[in-house]
UniProtKB/TrEMBL annotation:
GO terms for molecular function: ATP binding; ATP hydrolysis activity. PANTHER family: ANION TRANSPORTER ATPASE-RELATED, ARSENICAL PUMP-DRIVING ATPASE ARSENITE-TRANSLOCATING ATPASE. It comes from the Bacteria. Gene3D superfamilies: P-loop containing nucleotide triphosphate hydrolases (3.40.50.300). Pfam families: ArsA_ATPase (PF02374). This is Anion-transporting ArsA/GET3 family ATPase. InterPro entries: ArsA/GET3_ATPase-like, ATPase_ArsA/GET3, P-loop_NTPase. Coiled coil: none annotated.
Amino acid sequence: MSLDVDALLGDRGIRIVVCCGSGGVGKTTTAAALALRAAEKHDRRAVVLTIDPARRLAQSLGLTELSNTPRTVAQATGGQLDAMMLDMKRTFDEVVLSHTSEEKAAEIFANPFYQAMSSTFSGTQEYMAMEKLAQLRAADSWDLIVVDTPPSRSALDFLDAPQRLARFLDGKMLRLLLAPARSGRSVFSVMTAATSFFTNTIAKILGGRLLTDIGTFVSSLDSTFGGFRSRAEQTYKVLQDRETAFLVVATPEPDAVREAAYFAGRLTEERMPLAGMILNRVHTTGVGELSAQRSLGAAEGLEEHGLSPVTAGVLRIHADLVAQAEREERVAGRFTTAHPEVPTTRVAAQPGDVHDLEALRNIGDLLAAD
C-alpha cells in the first residue's frame, strides 16, 4: 500500500506531523523536506521543529544556525516555512517564567539542582520537546507543525520520557521534601527515625548539599506543581488526535526496520494515528532485467577473453548493486509483513548530503513520487 504524501500534507485537518524512528535514518532531512513541500506545494504556513543538536536542519536549509525562536527560511505564494531548533534549557526557563513570578523564577534559576536538571537530566529534552510543541500549537501562527523527534537509543523515549519526568516532578519523594518547606521547618526536623535513616543514606550517596538544593528547588517550584503532569497529559492527548499524523522513518537496515516495526506497534497500542512509513536511502537499479547472476557471468566472460576490462568492472558494480537492492527489499519486507496496513513510500539513496533548499525540494519530490 502506497503512502500519498501530498494528500497528507494537503489535508488541512492535519496540523501536526511527527517524524520518528531510530537515530541516523534521515528524520531531520525528511522533516525539513515535508515542511518545505507543504509550504510551497500546498500553501501551508508550516514550521519545522528539530530536536537534533547536530544542526543538520540548519545546514539543509542553507542557514548557519537555528534558535529556540522560529525563523522564516522560505516564502511561497500562499505559504511560508519557518524553522527552529529546540533549546532545552531556554524552553524550561520559559515554562517556569510563565507559571510563576519573576522573583520566584530568579530563585529557581539560581538553584544548582535546577541548573543541572534543565540542562542534563534524563528525559528533559523529550519533555521540553513536548512543551515546545504545545507552545507552537497554542500560538496558532502555523497551520502545520512538523516535528523531528530527538536522536536517542529508542524512538520510544519521545513518548515515555515526558511522562517519566512529569511523574518525577510531581512525585511522592519531591512532595515529601516539599511538605516541610511549606511548614517552615527543615526537611530533616520532621522525619521519623526510619525516614531519617533513609534520608541520611541518600545524603551519603548524593551529598547533603544536593538534598538541600532539591528541597529548595521543590519549595520554589511549589506554584507550578501539578502543571508539569497536566501539560504532558494534554499534549499526549493531542498526539492521539486526528489532527496529528505520525510518520515512521527507517532505512533498509535490519536494526532500523526492527525499530520501525516496534514503534509502529507501540503507536497502535497507544491509539496514536500512524499515517505511514518512509523507507529512506533505498538503492535501485535502472536495468532491472539484468540480474546479478547474468551480470557476473558477462563480466567473467569478458575477463576470460581479455576484453573490455572497463565494461567488466561496470557489470560487477551492477551485480553488487542488484544484490544490495534485493537484500534491502528482503529487509523492508519484514516491516510490510508485520504491518501490511501501514502505507509506505520509498526515497532513493542520494549521491551526496542534503545541504540546501533545492536538495530538500528534490527529497520532497521523491517522497511524493512513490
